[in-house]
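Our consortium's second objective concerns turning raw sequence data into structural hypotheses that experimental partners can test. To show how far this objective has progressed, the report includes one record in full. It was chosen at random from the queue rather than selected for favorable results. The single chain below, 342 residues long, was entered without modification.
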Amino acid sequence: MKAMIIDRICDLKEEKSPLKLVEIPVPIPDDNEVLVKVSVCGVCHTELDEIEGRTPPPRFPLVPGHQIVGVVAETGKGVKTLKAGDRVGIAWIHSACGKCRFCLEGNENLCDRFEATGRDVHGGYAEFAVVSGDFAYPIPALFNDFEAAPLLCAGTIGYRSLRLTQMQDGENIGLIGFGASAHLVIQMIRHKYPSSKVFVFARREGERVFAKKLGAYWTGDTADEPPEKIHRAIDTTPVWGTMLHALRNLEKGGRLVINAIRKESVDKEKLLELDYPEHLWLEKEIKSVANVTRRDVREFLELAAEIPIKPEVRKYTLEQANEALIELKEGNIQGAKVLHIA
């Protein structure tokens, strides 16, 4: 089968074709797995982190991609819930042990044996992929394949972030950064918490205009002070300083959720900028988001169909994966980028 692979760590400022198109064998599903003929696969910032070594694969070569939509081509004999011909999605969570305390509590995203699709195992930049039948999700009929792919990552991690804020209707919420995830989160907020005001903090004017279009009450730069305190906040940026601004703008007892796989390295001088009385006192909280659970994927797909949420999409062929990644690296992110595999 055709596949695009990562075979080394490289700097995308210098390397414009980090992925190689190769022929590799079609994977064979184990007893509890399904073989999925991939239709589309979304392109994510996480692939940039993998290629540039910030969250590197444990081995090379690797097929990236974790926003997979396709059709079940074959099932292992132990799979009872899916059959050939079913349309399914595969998300970032590929597997967990199922036996540890975290898995038993429903927090399989924290399992020590958590494996990620397209990082720890081969992903969806290929014609076929395999996954446990328990980690493949039926796609609501409302969405075509291209629309469904971004929901499996940006939408799902955004849903988990919003759930972790523990917000109530009527509370103010701030969204720091307004990219792929936040533009879906604001639609969830408008649906679930109609009395709440959404304050969007974004560096680019185009993002602020887009946020207003989607119903933001107020928009400003990431360092601006909003006209009201915010009770909850979600920070999707990779930089340190936005956290300080968000904490400064939080109401007493407020909670900041960090939805980012990484933050920039912080030197001692920047750490000293964290002022306890100004940023943390009066029972303010900081909580990070790590991966997603199966519950997050299932619940968000149902919510997305209920709202409904339909992402803007830009289509590429499998062979154009490098082009899509470089555009993402350079900040050209108008619409979710999705590879058409089959």
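The partners drew two points from this record. The two ends are 11 Å apart (CA to CA). Residues 145-165 form the longest helix (21 residues). Both points have been shared with the crystallography group to help prioritize constructs.
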